[in-house]
Amino acid sequence: MDHLEDYYNHYDEDGRLLSRHGQVEYLTTRKYIDECLRGVQGASILEVGAGTGRYSVSLAKEGYAVTAVELIRHNLEILRSKLDGSENITVLQGNAVDLSALPDGAFDVTLLLGPMYHLYTKAEKVRVLSEAVRVTKRGGYILVAYCMNEPTVIQYVFGMNKLHEVMDLNMITPDWHCVSEPKDLFELVRTEDIAALDAEVPVTRIKLVATDGATNYKREYIDAMDDETFRRWMDYHFTICERQDLIGASHHTLDILQKQ
Q1: 3-state SS track over the chain
Q2: Which of 218, 255, 257, 260 is the most buried if burial means most Cβ atoms within 10 Å?
Q3: Which is the CATH superfamily of the domain at 2-259?
Q4: What is the pLDDT of residue 207?
Q5: Per-residue pLDDT at 182
Q6: Nearest to residue 171, comparing CAs of 159, 158, 184, 161?
Q7: pLDDT in tens, 136-192
Q8: Span 72-106, pLDDT tens digits
Q9: Closest by alpha carbon to 75, among 53, 47, 48?
């Protein structure tokens, strides 16, 4: 908790999502949230790990009934500062592993767009996913974001010449899976790890999507694009973001599940 709180007390998450390259992740995630909300009258949305409210606040301002749960007090302060009182939003401090304050089957769409980044055992991840499924209505959707393994191996281990360091610290397995602890802040997974978690809960996968795809490999290039070029980049990205042969190379993925 101390490592995580210290990180988010000093990290500008809004700035990342508002950058040109960060917009790819945000716009892609919103595209699929909107698809899940389409045709649902009076939809209720839960975001667990709401951060500074980039998604929760925008959804509330669009008229949805939103419950935002966030662990870090600093993030909650920023989230609340964005509200003018007209939004139908409930903001709670809480932990993704224990949503006992929320009733069963209460939400049409549940968002886990950050918690899986910071959980380091399968048991913890299954607990969080199970809680999200519990509070979602039957037939409702659970959208879960993950950080992927391969971009870190490519860009950090090799790209930043950290190979000997991570090997000396036993931070990489013989099959090149990164090993994380809470002090490392982010847990990295592969598509088979996500599938193994899904198998533990009563859900059907709808889609597994690359939310940023190739974008973060070319951040400076993306950030320098003019509006027309960026529009075409987004068109290209949306064309390929569901291609399963490319998913593992994306920095972030979105697992879209439906409760059975």
Answers
A1: CHHHHHHHHHCCHHHHHHCHHHHHHHHHHHHHHHHHHCCCCCCEEEEECCCCCHHHHHHHHCCCEEEEEECCHHHHHHHHHCCCCCCCEEEEECECCECCCCCCCCEEEEEECCHHHHCCCHHHHHHHHHHHHHHEEEEEEEEEEEEEHHHHHHHHHHCCCCHHHHHHCCCECCCCCECCCHHHCCCEECHHHHHHHHCCCCEEEEEEEECCCCHHHHHHHHHCCCHHHHHHHHHHHHHHCCCCCCHHHCCEEEEEEEEC
A2: 257
A3: Vaccinia Virus protein VP39 (3.40.50.150)
A4: 97
A5: 85
A6: 184
A7: 999 999 999 999 999 999 999 999 999 999 999 999 999 999 999 888 889 999 999
A8: 999 999 999 999 999 999 999 999 999 999 999 99
A9: 53
**Boundaries of every domain in the chain:** 2-259
Backbone angles phi, psi at 148, to 5 degrees: -100, 150
Residue with tokens 């700035």: 15
Dihedral through CA 191, CA 196, CA 201, CA 204, nearest 10? 50
Supply 45's token pair. 């949305």
Euclidean distance between CA atoms 257 and 260, whole angstroms: 9
Q: Which of 119, 112, 2 is nearest to 51 (CA)?
A: 112
At 235, list the tokens. 């068109």
Residue whose token pair is 């982010």? 186
Distance CA 76, CA 54 (A): 12
For the beta carbon of residue 204, count every other beta carbon within 10 angstroms: 10
Kindly report the CA angle at 258 between 252 and 179, in degrees rounded to 5? 35
Residue 6 makes CB contacts below 8 A (sequence gap 6+) with none
pTM summary value: 0.92
> Would strands 65-70 and 44-48 be described as parallel, antiparallel, or unpaired?
parallel
